[in-house]
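TODO from last week: model Fatty acid-binding protein DegV.
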Amino acid sequence: MTGPSVVVVTDSSACLPTELRDRWDIRVAPLHILLDDADLRDGIDDVPEDIYARDGVSTAGSNPEELTEAYRNGLADSGGAGVVAIHISSALSGTFGAAEHVAAEIGPGVRVIDSRSAAMGTGFVALAAARAAAGGADLDGVAAAAEAAVQRSRAYLVVQRLDNLRRSGRIGSAAAWLGTALSLKPLLAVDDGKLVLAQRIRTVNKAVASMIDRVCDAVGDRPAGLAVQHVANPHGAQEVAGALAERLPSCEPAIITDLGPTLALHVGAGAVAVCVDLNPGGAPAGV
């Protein structure tokens, strides 16, 4: 029999594939999609496939009741070892603020980590924490593993259209040119938790090529965890993953998954993102 083990919690923005979530016993609190009079829980309720194309739709973070349930259940299942919760960047969602408040009410057995990222940028941090927990690390050790993974994280995004970004209000330094740059296909990056403009490019193909170059420059010849994610663009994601496999032979094949309905609402159809865990330890980060 194994002894008590720290439980890892994240939210549905992490877009963790089911097999990874189940393998590492990572608990997931849902974000929310608000459509007409319906409050749909990401990953639990049925969400229309074309949600990103609908008007009048908004999103909301995990609520305190859901976070409380996830943390208290995690504490009980941990046998007293504790809970480490990794959430979407505080600059992109109110989930982290709600999580901090809930954790303060529960007590020191719950540690909350700001991933300063989203999608598999958050997912890789959760995986690093879960691997540490499975290896027998205590609460401090699991939290430290998560914080280290935050520092290793890189994320890039190419969008096909600017409408969703303009409506979402989640864009940082690029906001000033969104209104006039309709012909541009921006390459965006996550910088200290904020979504910012990395490069102005005229075509999608050139933006994707630049994204691949930036990922390869960041990784170099080291092993790294890679995830390619998309909104209604599986072919584009497969092409990016293939290019990365060819140019980064030291890395395990990229995880390929969609961005989920909550993030899709903010970036729109056709978007392709790459999240990276630079993973200096050398072990495959995505498994």
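Done. Residues 7-151 form a domain with the Rossmann fold fold (CATH 3.40.50.10170).
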